[in-house]
Amino acid sequence: MNKEKEEELWKDVRMYKAKFKSDEYFEHLKKFIENNDYDKVFRALKYSDILKEIKEPKNEECICKFLKDNEYNIREKKILNFFTNIKNKKQNRRKINNFLNEVKILNKVEQEIIKLTEENISKSDFIVFDICNYANSLLYKMGQKIENSEMNDNLDGIIMILSRFLHDIMNDKKKIFKYKEDKYKENNYIKNTFSFYQDLYNFNYLKSIWKYGDLEIKNNYFEEIGEFGKNKTISQIPYLEKKEAKIKEFPIEIMLCSQIKEYFYSNDLGQKYLNIPIKYWIKVYILLYYLLLQFKDTILIPKYKKGEILKLLENMDKKIDFSKIRLPKGVDDEIKKMLKILFSQKIPNKYIEDILNKFVYNENSKDLYTSPILKFEKDSINYDVILPQVFLRTDHSRALISILSKNTSNDLQQKGDNLEKYIFTLMKDAKIEIIKNKKPEKSKRKEKDYEIDLMYIVNKELILVEIKTQKQTEDYNDFYRVSLKELKKYIGKFNRNINYFINNEREDIEKKIGKYDKYKKIYVSNVTYSLNNLDDVIIIDIEDFEENIKKGNYQFNNITELKNEKIKNISSLIEKRKIKFAREYSGILGYTTYCIKNFEK
């Protein structure tokens, strides 16, 4: 394998786990060891899910032996000597001892949680409805208003814990839960069951922090340190802030249309995602919201016989009269047009049924956000159940966008095309002559995958722009994939393409938009990065690009200073929050993690 392919291989964190203990793995690890780069060795071990491979390590010899026994070239004893060599220096000794201590304690905590869970939790179907009922009641007791970001995180936690419970209970053969009400209602068993899953959920989150970021133990808590978690939070804040403003100001119909328009960079409701026009996705979601709104002030959970939800939504759709819908002030004309299309056209029954089927929770479901309908069976009768307090409190735009953003190549390409068209329109409005989607000239078509999304010239400077739509990050794995794997890959390809066109097609470029004596490279993404520059490419988000073009800063002068100020302002919205386990495990009470500051909504 050549060096370039090898580097590309190890950019994918999954390879560390897939190739664990292989010759390739130890050859890769040995390079770090030979350079005495223990931080990279530890990170490689973390990526390899070392917690699952080594149980209860007592000291460094355990990991040394583990590595030595699996090293294909034992004679060199590089790995065996590694820990001894780096411990000669005081700071090295401290770091390796901290790492080994983290492994030991994390293993102990995980084993205690799993042991207690297995001893205390029944896998019977019959507790499923009671657990759902308990979670529904918890959300109801939180009150109808989410006053701040901490309450919002707690709400999200309850929904994700319940999702984890359902995922563990469900398997390939069990797609319908048995329904039996009140067997454990209001007793400690249900409360304890939920608390064990709460600890499992929180511990898995803690493991993600450790895998991708860094921890230290302080006052019986693991504390998140370092830049990875902070940068993940920075990437989330601009997106969440815009969404919060819309949720606060507008009802669900307007908020969903606005979010969909912004996320997909288009107001074309006829575009299809998962082979269904987007307007029908939005409308079915809104109709479900209307259906469950009657249960807003109660802990009751409605049960619908097979096909009943479909009929109810069909009838509701027939009765909606757009002319009687009063829109609040401040709604722009494009959103009004979208709403008119949405409510003036009835949904074909086929699409309602297709969408409802895609909303059913099964063994492949991500969570209750994307799959809110649960299947229950009682006395040989099947029921569809949607938990009202879960659905009504759901982050609706997150749920719908997550459903519509499944990685089908056509759908992702469509969203990318929408963003490019949006930017091309922006340049047209600024009256800037551009080359869009530049490909090699016909005589050089063998270089078929070489392309630059946007080129233009200002003051004899050629501006080359790469436009990418990426998944908004929800967790540490998302952020690793987007910020490290995807970003490096895209920028590497962008630089390759630029080198080709600068070296081979300068004459054609100058013929179309003018002569230049220097050039600048800009990478534009819908995701916000704290990183300013990578491999001589300036990295900005779509809001930065739009703002600078509208202000006439077509060359992006002083963009580093402007972005640094923006990231500084975003960073001021970050704080650490303490997450406490329901019970103590090996002296550990919980952990602290980076989060969005507890601002008032």
Structure commentary:
By secondary structure, the protein is of the alpha/beta class. It folds into 3 domains: 3-119, no CATH class; 121-404, no CATH class; 431-553, no CATH class. It has 24 helices and 16 strands. It has a 6-stranded mixed beta sheet with strand order 9-10-11-12-14-13, with helices on both faces. It has a 4-stranded mixed beta sheet with strand order 1-7-8-6, with no helix packed on it. A 4-stranded mixed beta sheet has the order 2-3-16-15. Strand 7 and strand 8 form a beta hairpin. Helix 13 runs parallel beside helix 19 (396-404). It starts with a helix and ends in a 5-residue tail after the last strand. Mean pLDDT is 83; it is low at 56-60 and 66-80.
Short note summarizing the structure:
The chain is an alpha/beta fold.
Instruction: Please report the distance between the alpha carbons of the first and last residues.
Output: 53 Å
Question: Structural class, please?
Answer: alpha/beta
Count of individual domains: 3
Number of DSSP strand runs? 16
User: What is the percentage of strand-forming residues?
Assistant: 5-15%
Mean pLDDT: 83
The radius of gyration is 27 Å
How many helices?
A: 24
Helix content: 40-55%
Strand ordering within the main sheet = 9-10-11-12-14-13
Main β sheet profile: 6 strands, mixed
Give the overall shape. globular
Residue ranges: pLDDT <50 for 5 or more in a row?
56-60, 66-80
